[in-house]
Amino acid sequence: MKEINKLVLLVIAICLSSCGEDFLSPDPVSAVSAAGYFETEAQLETGVINMYDGLQGENTTGNNSNRGVQLEFYLTEMRSDNTRTKSSEGEAAQFENYTIESNNGIIADYYRSMYGIIFRANTVLENLDVASSAVAAQFEGEAKFVRAYAYFQLVRLYGDVPLIDQVVSPLDTEKQFTRVSTDQVYNLIISDLQTAAANLEKRNTTRASKAAAQGLLAKVQLTRGNYSEARSLCESVVGSGYSLQTNFQDVFYNEGNDEVIFAIGYISDDNNDSQNFSAEFLNAVGRTTGVNYPTDEAVAALDELGGNRAAYSYRVDALQPIHHQVVKYLPNGDEALGIAPTSGDPTLAGNDWIVLRYADVLLMHVEAIMGESGMTNDPAALASFQAVRDRAGLTETVQLITKEDLLNERRVELAFENHRLFDLIRFGVAQNVLSEFSANNGFAFTATDLLLPIPDGEIGLSNGVLTQNPGY
């Protein structure tokens, strides 16, 4: 996305205009055919880049803006026990206190964004015949990786969702709006990632690679309880040449390093390719400041178990010392921590968003070996676990790992990277942990809050074909 010609983007934006506000609307909104545009490999590659642009999302706070991954922290981290708002106000507060309404604009924007990404991926897949066989295989792998990522997010957040695996007519409302079982969605995700892993070789932090496909598939297999498959995939990634950064801070501020397997790239001070979510994590900097603030519970966990990771995970809010801020993606730097600004304007930040990194894979490796037993002393698991702790300065030799140990380690290693909620669900403890957290903080969590509502607007567009999740 960083090398896109803006004129080409404009053409593709017209071609793909149904990715916008009314992506699932049955009303035709474009007279330009994508099939008429993609005639060469070079043109098809602009479609591939456009998929990543969809993941990147738009740097804006407007309604119906397709902000993509820039909204993801609301739906994930702020629904766990890790983060909250500064002031408990507005639509954002619905996520922290479990009072989400089905007309929440953030929910709708993310849902539309993911289906817009899927549309872009399907468009690439439909036009592979314009490329040579080798290039077509690469583009197919990238498109299926991106599509799988979008569906993996959707199925974990919304449950049963419409499964659109090809470019559909605007009038094909049954395909667009009929929810299918999670099993069917996972079957497509697994198939897509298997194809991506087979087709891709090139190592590229901000584009799909073989290791990225294997790592994401490992997480999918863990989610499905397929532990042996997940172990094999993790071990393939471990043998791919990635490594932990010696300094934890460098993971986030030395971009493109050997720990990052897949990240969504941004360019600072660029209206088209920057992000503003990291400015929103601050106070009096962003446009909707004071969201994704660490909870007292997360701070306590980092202080107790984080080792040297704590200093580079959160800091005290200098303007309001009773609050804490996420440090991993500071756009304006922190001199005391040795972090340089990534942009002249924090709302035009260039911090990449890390989707998958090597430490995550090492801890998934432990999880895969542990399986359903609840503990392990397997030497391979101990080695992976120890490597992550050693980097954090916690060098005491580990001889046994319990499920609680692993969940705690994932919490402090991957704090504020949008993994905590999914980890709680995958480990089977979400209802107990979040019920206790909710009770302690006066929130309103119930079991139905583990899924988000289907956006009201999409149900309306479907004329009632789309059904709502329980509890909303």
Give keywords.
10 strands, 472 residues, single chain, two-stranded antiparallel sheet, 20 helices, disordered N terminus, mainly alpha, Serine Threonine Protein Phosphatase 5, Tetratricopeptide repeat
Give the integer mean of the pLDDT values. 91
Q: Under the CATH scheme, which architecture of the domain at 1-26 and 34-200 would be assigned?
A: Alpha Horseshoe
In percent, how much strand structure appears in the residues?
5-15%
Estimate the helix proportion, in percent: 40-55%
Characterize the overall form.
globular
- CATH class assignment of the domain at 1-26 and 34-200: Mainly Alpha
Description:
The protein has helices spanning 6-15, 34-37, 41-56, 72-75, 93-97, 105-126, 133-158, 173-177, 182-199, 210-223, 227-238, 250-253, 277-280, 296-305, 358-370, 379-391, 403-413, 420-426, 430-441, 456-461; strands at 83-84, 161-162, 179-180, 260-264, 293-294, 314-316, 324-326, 353-357, 375-376, 401-402. The protein is 46% helix and 6% strand. Among the domains are: 1-26 and 34-200, Serine Threonine Protein Phosphatase 5, Tetratricopeptide repeat (Alpha Horseshoe); 277-351, no CATH class. It contains 20 helices and 10 strands. The strands form 5 sheets. It has a two-stranded antiparallel ribbon with strand order 1-5.
